Amino acid sequence: MNKCKVLCVMGTRPEAIKMAPLVLELRKRPEIDCRVCVTAQHREMLDMVLDLFGITPDYDLNIMTPSQTLCTIAARVISGMEGVLRDFAPDVTLVHGDTTTTAAGALAAFYCGALVGHVEAGLRTYDRRSPYPEEVNRMMAGAICELHFAPTENNRQNLLRENIREGITVTGNTVIDALKYTVRDDFAFRTAAAADAVASGRRIVLLTAHRRENFGRPHDNIFEAARQLALRFPDMVILYPVHPNPALNRRAHEMLDGIENIVLTKPLDTDEMHNLMARSTLILTDSGGLQEEGPALGKPVLVLRRETERPEAVAAGTVKISGTETDDIVRDASALLTDPVAYAKMARAVNPYGDGRACERIADAILFHFGLRDTAPADFTGR
Questions:
Q1: Which of 27, 43, 203, 243 is catalytic?
Q2: Would you call 210 a catalytic residue per the annotation?
Q3: Residues 6+ positions from 360 with CB-CB distance below 8 Å
Q4: How far apart are CA 255 and CA 67, in angstroms?
């Protein structure tokens, strides 16, 4: 029997976290020959995830360079992937989400005549500048791809509004599948800051802040909010794994060093991050992925952005958009840290993003598309 040849493309840590469980699922299927191409848009942080899931890439473009720009990343992805696509000649190339690797990888595959599938399709803010450049990257991928693996029904509706009507499967989000591999009750933290915070018995507030559109005053506002919260709630510890961007790292230390219950640490490995979320009281973030992971772990999430391409959790009540103004962040976080009823309402809200079977649905949908399975998988309903 001829196998279906699937090429999975990823370049950054967030992509790898969500694609790794899919790679493992595809490699379990006897009908599928799955190979992995990494662009290494982010090198070290990507490699951490690959090591965690035991994945060795079949192709490694290793494109990361000092002071790389979006233009140089896109150019190197397109030129590098051409040889990979010619060599493997996949039946379908899978890209994930919204990175420059996603948009450029999809375009390269299309130029080489390959069918392209989009994992985590249909997320939208309809603001081309926020998140930047991710919103346009997603729109480009959606226009190129022929198979669309939408995490939620809302994502499907976004695609339909753009007149994308064929090849859509509602799957849930693969990040929920990833949590099954990483979160453990007996997990041992390797990073001293995380281990000490957990061992202290204090309430943990996990902070992440790294988005491009928040550079400058918005990040300053976020850091000032963290400072005020730490002083207001000395019984808790705010743990901030600082993004390696030099300017952001420098500013974070300028504003937050010296406050006893604010701990700045290096970026955490994926399994540490997931297990720290599981042990946190509250998550403050401008990340996209944490808006999905937090609800899956029963943790309230305050989004430090003006909008979100993940409105399902806002509607469900487990995520709230607090924005980037200091007073708003302090108000919303303080309410959750002092009001058990408000906290429980968010913590117990139903997670709309998945049931841990997204990868299974994607594999089944691919096999159905290529005539290797008799029936299409049932859509994830969120109920």
A1: 243
A2: yes
A3: 25, 377
A4: 25
pLDDT in tens, the chain (383 residues): 589 999 999 999 999 999 999 999 999 999 999 999 999 998 988 999 999 999 999 999 999 999 899 999 999 999 999 999 999 999 999 999 999 999 999 999 999 999 999 999 999 999 999 889 999 999 999 999 999 999 999 999 999 999 999 999 999 999 999 999 999 999 999 999 999 999 999 999 999 998 878 788 999 999 999 999 999 999 999 999 998 888 889 999 999 999 999 999 999 999 999 999 999 999 999 988 899 999 999 999 999 998 888 899 899 899 999 999 999 999 999 999 999 999 999 998 778 899 999 999 999 999 999 999 999 999 998 76
Strand, coil or helix: 35: strand
β 301-303/115-119 pair status: unpaired
Catalytic residue among 60, 98, 177, 269: 98
DSSP-derived 3-state class of residue 22: helix
Residue 146 near residue 166, CB atoms below 8 Å: yes
User: Whole-prediction pTM value?
Assistant: 0.86
User: Which residue's structure tokens are 């699937």?
Assistant: 6
185 is an active site residue? no
243 is known as an active-site residue: yes
Kind and range of the H or E element at 328? Answer: helix 326-338
Both tokens assigned to 250: 């420098």
- Catalytic hit among 15, 134, 271, 286: 134
Residues 112-115: contacts with CB under 8 Å, at least 24 apart: 112/81, 112/82, 112/85, 112/86, 114/7, 114/85, 114/89, 114/90, 115/91, 115/146, 115/147
CA–CA separation, 86 vs 93, rounded Å?
Answer: 12
Give me the catalytic one of 15, 91, 120, 271. 120
The DSSP secondary-structure symbol of 213 reads: G
Reduced to 3 states, what is the DSSP secondary structure of residue 322?
coil
Count CB-CB contacts under 10 A for residue 240: 21
Query: Is 148 known to be catalytic?
Result: no
305 noted as active-site residue: no
